[in-house]
Design brief:
Blueprint: H1 11-14, H2 17-38, H3 47-59, H4 63-81, H5 84-103, H6 113-133, H7 141-150, H8 156-175, H9 177-199, E1 204-210, H10 214-224, E2 229-239, E3 242-257, H11 258-271, E4 276-281, E5 292-293, E6 296-297
Antiparallel strand pairs: 1-3, 1-4, 2-3, 5-6
Length: about 300
């Protein structure tokens, strides 16, 4: 594991306009979600926020104190494992959330449980997503999830589901099954919204095509859709009834948004109705030509 202890805090990055705008907007949305939707109606989110709400409603301990106390060990882990800048920025985000919850007065918007779950989760997820885009977090569970993911055979998703399942089971025991079920809906809405905010609505997808008309397919993707391609040399054929028959071909791979996949597949099928596709979701794209904005490649 990389030693981050020698890294200094990048204050310029923490207080950059880009980071501050994302963080402040994210804190505002998260505070509204908690004050106007979730806390008055005993709805939980996942992670540290969920634990804090559970303890607050069960024992009456101030949620602001809980958010700081529960997150402190995770911030220490982030300082050691991820980096000082990230830990400081996360600490600032958590402190701003506590201040907002203390001073912000927001009336309860609705008592409809479905609306609370959906819009409370949407606002909470949007807030968390914006804070992450600003470089920090308000939920230390992300740190411990990353730690166990690197030191166990479990995936990050499996660890997250397991830890949050314990929170929801505790909510069911303390408040009953129905509030716990609505809390699950809130949490699901929040994590899906966070994914959209962090990854963008244009989530990138790797599209691989094997076609006998590979030259026409390459020309279509590059010239008509303006996409860069990678080409692998391969062979097609090897069917069960004609295993001995094979043909050399170019295997074409391109990175597109999920909004473009269907249009490109239809266009390719007009060239070769028997073209073979497979699609893979990818989490991050960096470098090369991914899309065009005007005459500028991004």
């Amino acid at each position: 594991m990389k030693d981050n202890s020698v890294q200094s805090v990048d204050w310029k990055s923490i207080f950059s306009p880009h980071s501050l705008v994302y963080t402040i907007c994210g804190i505002s949305l998260s505070a509204i979600a908690l004050k106007a939707f979730m806390l008055p109606n005993k709805f939980l989110d996942g992670g540290v926020t969920g634990i804090a709400i559970l303890v607050n409603l069960g024992f009456g301990i101030d949620i602001n104190i809980l958010l700081i106390a529960i997150n402190l060990p995770f911030l220490f882990m982030a300082w050691r494992m991820i980096g000082k800048t990230f830990a400081v920025q996360s600490g600032i985000s958590i402190s701003l959330l506590v201040i907002a919850l203390h001073f912000l007065e927001v009336p309860t918007v609705t008592e409809d449980k479905v609306l609370i779950a959906v819009f409370g989760g949407f606002l909470m997820g949007s807030g968390i997503g914006l804070i992450i885009r600003g470089g920090g977090l308000i939920d230390g569970f992300e740190v411990i999830t990353e730690y166990f993911h690197k030191n166990s055979a479990l995936t990050a998703s499996e660890i997250t589901v397991f830890l949050n399942s314990l929170i929801m089971l505790s909510a069911a025991y303390v408040f009953g099954i129905e509030p716990a079920m609505y809390s699950i809906l809130t949490y699901f809405t929040a994590i899906k919204t966070t994914d959209y905010i962090v990854e963008g609505f244009e989530e990138y997808t790797a599209l691989t095509i094997i076609s006998k008309e590979h030259e026409l397919v390459k020309e279509l993707i590059v010239k008509d859709f303006g996409k860069a391609i990678s080409v692998y040399k391969g062979e097609r054929g090897y069917l069960p009834d004609t295993f001995h028959i094979k043909h050399p071909c170019d295997i074409i791979m391109t990175v597109v948004t999920r909004l473009e996949v269907h249009r490109i597949k239809l266009a390719i099928q007009e060239i070769d109705p028997k073209a073979f596709f497979y699609v893979q979701t990818i989490k991050e794209v960096k470098g090369g030509v991914v899309k065009q904005v005007g005459k500028k490649h991004v």
